[in-house]
Amino acid sequence: xxxxxxxxxxxxxxxxxxxxxxxxxxxxxxxxDWELCLVDDCSQAAGVHEILEAAxxxxxxxxxxxxxxxxxxxxxxxxxxxxxxxxxxALLDHDDLLHPDALAHVANALDLNPEADYAYTDEDKxxxxxxxxHPFFKPDWSPERLRTxxxxxxxxxxxxxxxxxxxxxxxxxxxxxxxxxxxxxxERARAIVHVPRVLYHWRILETSAAAAADAxxxxxxxxxxxxxxxxxxxxxxxxxxxxxxxxGVLHLQPRLERQPxxxxxxxxxxxxxxxxxxxxxxxxxxxxxxxxxxxxxxxxIVVIFDDAIQPVILQELRDIAGDRLRLVRFTGPFDFxxxxxxxxxxxxxxxxxLLNDDIEVTTPEWIExxxxxxxxxxxxxxxxxxxxxxxxxxxxxxxxEEGLPNHTYRGYDGDFRGYANAVLIARDVLAVTGAxxxxxxxxxxxxxxxxxxxxxxxxxxxxxxxxxxSGRRIVYDPDLVLFHFESSTRDPVVEAWxxxxxxDRWQQVAAVDPFGNPNMKHGLPRLSSHVSWARxxxxxxxxxxxxx
Amino acid sequence: MSEQAxxxxxxxxGASEAEYGATYYSNYWGGGGPYERNERWLKxxxxxxxxxxxxxxxxxxxxxxxxxxxxxxxxxxxGVEAWGADIxxxxxxxxxxxxxxxxxxxxxxxxxxxxxxLITCIEVLEHVPPAEADQAIxxxxxxxxxxxxxxxxxxxxxPTHLNVQPPEWxxxxxxxxxxxxxxxxxxxxxxxxxxxxxRQEEPRAETVRRYDRAWWRLRREVSEVRESLLHxxxxxxxxxxGGGIGSRPDLLVELDQRNEEILKxxxxxxxxDAELGAAKGRAAAFEAQVMQRVNIKNQVYSKxxxxxxxxxxxxxxxxxxx
Lengths: 548, 322
Known about the structure:
The complex is a heterodimer of chains A (548) and B (322).
Chain A: E1 5-11, H1 16-27, E2 34-40, H2 48-58, E3 62-66, H3 73-83, E4 88-91, E5 97-98, H4 102-112, E6 116-126, E7 132-136, H5 143-148, E8 156-159, H6 160-166, H7 177-188, E9 191-203, H8 217-234, E10 238-242, E11 250-254, E12 262-268, E13 272-275, E14 278-281, H9 282-293, E15 299-305, H10 311-321, E16 325-329, H11 336-345, E17 351-355, E18 359-361, H12 366-374, E19 379-387, E20 393-395, E21 398-401, E22 404-407, E23 427-429, E24 436-440, H13 441-446, H14 459-469, E25 473-484, H15 496-510, E26 520-521, E27 524-525, H16 527-536
Parallel strand pairs in A: 1-2, 1-4, 2-3, 6-9, 12-15, 12-17, 15-16, 19-25
Antiparallel strand pairs in A: 4-8, 5-9, 6-7, 6-8, 10-11, 13-14, 17-24, 18-25, 19-20, 21-22, 23-25, 26-27
Helix pairs in contact in A: 7-8, 9-10
Chain B: H1 2-8, H2 12-19, H3 22-27, H4 39-56, E1 60-64, H5 70-77, E2 81-86, H6 89-93, E3 103-105, E4 118-122, H7 130-142, E5 146-150, H8 167-175, E6 179-181, E7 195-199, H9 204-241, H10 250-303, H11 307-321
Parallel strand pairs in B: 1-2, 1-4, 2-3, 4-5
Antiparallel strand pairs in B: 5-7, 6-7
Helix pairs in contact in B: 4-5
């Protein structure tokens, strides 16, 4: 009978102690139904052969193959794949370690999701001194994040039939062959599960990719090519570029095949505020920045104004925006939702772009960037990186803590990269701010627009949760940078009833943020997480799962 | 005079019978049905007579080319002495008996024979051959100081219109006799081209001033009309483009309101759905709590013998006390 898991591990010139520990970590698994497929890629180092021989004789579940020539990691991995007979294959590197309960937890998760074709877990690193460092607490399945960061990586467990269907590892992408494989698998996977536990320990060796970013530049380049190939396969309209200064960061540059009409909806009361120490009418500053900087051609600007606005402001807007401008008069008491809804009804764009009047555009391709995501399948809302006038972060996506929204990294320095580069990479999030949000018109109309039951606060969050619960995704784009001249010292007043209404509606959906992690708070590891992370390194499920 | 006139145009007298006989009047006149003594024509000339009396207060009127004398008749009804002459014997024969003595057959090439306070000449001069026009004008000008002229500037279609000329042509002709157009007078009740010519013994500068005043007024009028037309076009373009403040028709506003309501209803539906989900979640959590307690209770009861019986006894005791 074929085992549940086949652990595939190409071996090449592994230090003996490290190799032994790797094999021991497999042998110590609390979940017993596995096989270990080791492929020795023609190692010359002393001890490797002996250790492998000893291991096979120790446990019949350990199988070893020897290559007569050095084929490289892709060829060796494919050889190991060919040996595998299990329902799932788990990828384990020859110098890394599995948590004793790794397979047990993954098996549990797969049992709970029979449709799952791919499972991944959190991970940490083991430094040369043997200490566990840098735990990486990951979000649940985020296709957007995988496009700019190989975040799932270890431990990855894939359904073997699907791996064979997509043709295994591709030598074209050597160095990032696992990223490429997982992209191809997840393009077809029915369901993907995340086990939010640190179950894989990535050993930092001098030669390992974990040691230094510059160690393997060709690996980053292969990664960029793998993502580009993925974009081409799935029709995602982007060109992948590596950051010239930071090879680990990828940028997706929009290459749109079409330019749908975009209606930019700007509600305004014609307020003035200091912009770069000079008083300015916000809406005029905003519209001017759009007209002067946007490279997109097919857009209209819909300004929804109150009666209180000075006519001279409207005239100035007409002078700036000309034919692109559409003025919509709003009567009635202040109601952000109703204003946006009215503007949406009075406009014609295929894509709606909600914009606050205290925003200033800096990225010329800002509309293209949003259309790139919003025009693709199953995306319901797109937001960007908003910074205050002093370049501190205002918004990089909204996370949820105990069911309530929280602007992650609000007020952090503009250079802050975020936990695991979170600020610099595209991510799926549960909500983005309505200060700058693109959504397809059909989605907006299907979901009833912004809720008028929350006229002041949370209507954007509520909208995003509606988008999420309709099965669509919400995307944060890191390369869309806008200035937001909201007063950074003023916290918006949130009434108790508003919080109550949010909780009443979304308690079930927002109680657990799928793009957070139980070990994280405010976008960073909890203080207590280090304790639990350390404690959980000890096996606990051995008692629950008796040996077969 | 008659002899002389005939010698100028020998065929005229005879031609008039052929040209302006019964057939002419029943077919050609005005295009709005036959020209005969009916209510329509009497009403029209009644109004013209009213206008003439109101504006010009004539003491005596000569209607040159009076046809069947309707204007003469209407003026008489209003107490104004009026005479008429026409080249058509047939037309004169149709004149109403009340003014029979006042209308006669005569050509415009003959002078009217006496002076009148006002001469009217309505849609007649275009019928006079160009060669005789000068003589006719001279005759009319010789018999009055005020002349009400209406002659079509554009109706070339009718065969008897022998001399259709633009207004300035007639103005020049009358000016030769010292008659100037009265620029202030509005005679549109008669025809769009009707004009009152009066004998003006004025210096040229005065004439220029009068004409310039009228020209300036018209010029201003034109520019204002043009401006308002431009404005209307802009408004139209705005409406068509759907932009502008409050320029939408009511229907679109109503449509907006309906659409807004639809949005609200959809939002409400989704919101209620989410609330239901949240409530179900709370219920499930509560149920789990209850089940947990029940389990604990069962465990405790199963572990401590007779606890069930004991608690039953206590309960019964309490019940009897009450």
